[in-house]
Amino acid sequence: MEVGLRLRAFREHAGLSQRALAKKASVTNSTISLIESGKMNPSVGALRRILEGIPVGMSEFFAYEPDGEKTVFYAAEELTEISKGKVSLKQVGTNLYGRAMMILSETYEIGGDTGRVMYGHEAEEGGIVVSGRIEVTVGDQRKILGPGDAYYFDSRNPHRFRQVGPEKCTIISACTPPTF
């Protein structure tokens, strides 16, 4: 199992956000994010410092093999919130270990935006707008989508989502593999 997936499983089990773990371990939030997304492998010293923030020892960390989630149905209140602020991302399932896809219920409040700096990750993603309007930018392409409109793209292309219009926007999306 990858170090990043393992770290995420331990962090979530401990009930810590990436930011909270970063603060406890005296590392940046982006360091935790990069490790969990598989974009960075920490040194032994850095990993040890991060694990002390959970706390868990190195041997327990590398011996751990989480069970894949077996739940089939999820009530709305059981979705796992993985963001805060004007953009709510609610993930279907708590543990994505062994899963090939991530499904999200996304809500962009008025003014909600993923940020001026576009980002990319190793995946494909797609979604359908349920309500409201969203401006989606992928590379040099930009389009405003409304209810029933959809998108699908290679997530390695830098992208951004920004709510536009007088009401919040709701999207149901999927990402495979779950690298977001």
How would you briefly describe this protein structure?
Helices cover 23% and strands 29% of the residues. The protein is α+β, with helices and mostly antiparallel strands. The protein has a six-stranded antiparallel sheet with strand order 1-2-3-9-4-7, with no helix packed on it. The chain has a three-stranded antiparallel sheet with strand order 6-5-8, with no helix packed on it.
State the share of residues found in helices, binned by percent. 10-25%
Give the rounded overall mean pLDDT.
Answer: 90
C-alpha geometry: globular
Count the strands? 9
- Output the helix-strand order: HHHHHEEEEEEEEE
Class from secondary-structure proportions: alpha+beta
Structure description:
This protein has 180 residues and is an alpha+beta fold. 23% of the residues lie in helices and 29% in strands. The protein is globular. The two termini are 17 Å apart. The model has no long low-confidence stretch (mean pLDDT 90).
Provide tags for this entry.
single chain, 180 residues, alpha+beta, 6-stranded antiparallel beta sheet, 3-stranded antiparallel beta sheet, globular
Topology:
Elements lengths: L2 H11 L4 H8 L3 H8 L7 H9 L5 H6 L16 E2 L5 E5 L10 E7 L15 E8 L1 E6 L2 E5 L4 E5 L4 E6 L4 E8 L4
Antiparallel strand pairs: 1-2, 2-3, 3-9, 4-7, 4-9, 5-6, 5-8
